[in-house]
Amino acid sequence: METLSKPSLFWDIRSVDPDKNSDFVIDRILNSGDEGDLRWAIKYYGIAKMKARFEQNRNLDDKSFSFWCKYFDIDKSSCIQKQLKTKQGAFWKRSD
Question: Is a pLDDT exceeding 70 seen at residue 63?
């Protein structure tokens, strides 16, 4: 479980339970993990759970977001459209 002890992923907590905190762990790996972390997560959680978590929580930086859309074979236009609906800047006003 080398992934769970990486300061680059979990700088703000001392220990993490991969079963109780699966959403948190997957989010961190999707946003900041490397290839080894991804292999560990797929082996531990499975690709279906990783994809489901990505579809639930899309709070990723733009680069990671685009990569995971392609990796999970999700149409990028639907990814972007859903992301824009849920994330809105404080000073941006929608014109209806």
Answer: yes
pTM recorded for the entire structure: 0.74
Phi and psi at residue 12, to the nearest 5°:
-100, 0
Q: What is the mean pLDDT of residues 75-96?
A: 59
Query: Distance between CA 48 and CA 60 in Å, rounded?
Result: 18
Q: Is 25 helix (H, G, I), strand (E, B) or coil?
A: helix
Neighbours of 37 (CB within 10 A): 20
- Distance (Å) of CA 34 to CA 28, 30, 40, 64, 84: 10, 9, 10, 11, 26
The answer to whether residues 62 and 48 touch, using CB atoms and an 8 Å cutoff, is no
